[in-house]
Amino acid sequence: MSNPLLQTHVLPPFEQIEAEHVVPAVTELTNRNRQRIAQLVKEVEEPTWENFIAPLEDWADELQQAWSPVGHLSYVKDSPELREAYKESIQLLSAYHTELGQNRGLFEGYTKIRNSDAFKQLSQAQQQTIENALIDFSLTGIGLPEAEQKEFAELASQLAELSNRFQENVLDATQGWTLLIEDEARLAGLPETAKGTLAQNAKLKEQTGWLINLEFPSYLPVMTYCDDGDIRKQVYLAQVTRASEVGPNAGQWDNTETIRHLLEGRLKKAKLLNYDNFAQVSLAKKMAEDEGQVLAFLDELASKSYPQAQREFSELAAFAQEHLGLSELQPWDVTYVAEKLKLHQYSVSQEELRPYFPVDQVMKGLFETASRLFGVSFQQATDFESYHPDVRYYQVMKDGDPVASFYLDMYAREGKKGGAWMDDCRIRRRTEAGLQLPVAYLVCNFTAPLGDDQPSLLTHNEVTTLFHEFGHGLHHMLTQVEVSEVSGINGVAWDAVELPSQFMENYCWQPEALAFISGHYESGEPLPKELLDKMLAAKNFGSAMQMVRQLEFSLFDFRIHSEFTKEQGANIQDILNDVRKKVAVVKPPSFNRFQHSFGHIFAGGYAAGYYSYKWAEVLSADAFGKFEEEGIFNPETGKQFLNNILEKGGSAEPMELFKSFRGREPEIDALLRHSGIGA
Asked: Is the pTM of this model over 0.85?
């Protein structure tokens, strides 16, 4: 059987990949690399970059290029067959990478190069790669006795399996609940676009009426606009109890034990490595110096935001009582009431803005923004292998030459993980054959076009999401680094990786940019000044409530990973309740189990690192402050950001890169100012 994953391709052969190809490819490539590495360690007595690390990079990239499309497909085109192949392969890869991290010969080779005179002659990217590798060796148990190394390897495999199980449960729970509405009158308040989506949902399931599910294009409009409080409560209940022991699907796809085992495993891992807790392990490769610094940072934001958040919530509650007859503001009412109050105060809503943001116009505006800032252009291609008809493919051009490319997968659908993200498909690196150009995946879950007569129309919030993910994409695609381990987003400290993404969000609020980002889907007219003024006036509506909500997530994540003990395993909810006492203004009901679907920390890379969003938001707000001072499309300032941030990838410490761009260390005031939060 010919296996496309074992063949060399410029781009992934999506149309040829089947689930049956996955495990054989991963098995063959990992075993092949094991043999290569054993021979390398045995034969190379005087290791150098060229004879030791360069071949390791080649072999790692070969494996990555086979695995990348598999990992991507598991998120965007789930199937029972692929799920099983993915699960088995994750175990194989976990074992393989742990072996590498515990390979004494590899460790000694890197150490010899690090301690050699030749080290000083290596490029900054090469030096950083070696320094990072030595940290990784220490975090993979290189210093452990043999018995404990074996224990560590088994633990790594278990944690990989648990994270995968967590994500599978969330996906199944999200797709395992629906609510069919047969009486259109019950959908009063919903915009026609939202009702069109619900009708389309029903049609796809061969049902008559309007089908509500927990995918974002369905969930959010219902919670925002549906006048029927009972429907909002049902949808809220289903959403916040996903993959838990309570709610409409209680006990089905339950993540309770998965969470406990993950935290126990992470703590055990930390102890094996001689750390007190997993938070310390997480911080070993981040900008933040220690636990105290992270907690002080979050506490400072909380102290400056909480009083205003309380005032905002009181205003919501008073409005709900006076204008909507809601004597008590329930959690499932908050989004609905907030939208009503915003409309009352500013006479603008996301739905009113939606016709001005057809997806193709937004893409043009996005490309124009990047072009003005960084001197790049974009060309859409049609001749490529795809995994779904909705997927687009673009080349990134600079001075007439291609420098990168990306896949864009924008619309929600069954079998696709919710949320939005960027991932790498190919890494920029120098090879014997020449320069390998970077390729990215950009994924969102927007509302698909409704028939042939109406394009996909985005809310302004969705426009911001697209700009955010594109910022990650630019970080990956515009790198000039040619060493794979620190190229693009690779090797970037986790609490700095959100800097480019959050930076790009700022342009969604700039009148000069909105003039070409927006354009009515029928007339082509840009966002009218009256609507623009209202939107800008409403920019910071509820910003303090949003701030403390994110701080709730951040503090919960950091505290469970620093305070969790096996003996007090049941204290997860206690810690969450304590965090909520201190920072939450919306008090969730006792049945709320948001943690059971908190994929960022239990299935993603943000364990003890969710604070990174706020940490990087300080960096991005302060970075954009320089553009506010010098002109938001100042080409020289754009070039400085490109040269000092985007092009450098993970080749230097992020604080040094920030200071090179800004001329000083970051200041928290810019974030508070941008958020409209008084100190």
From this structure: yes
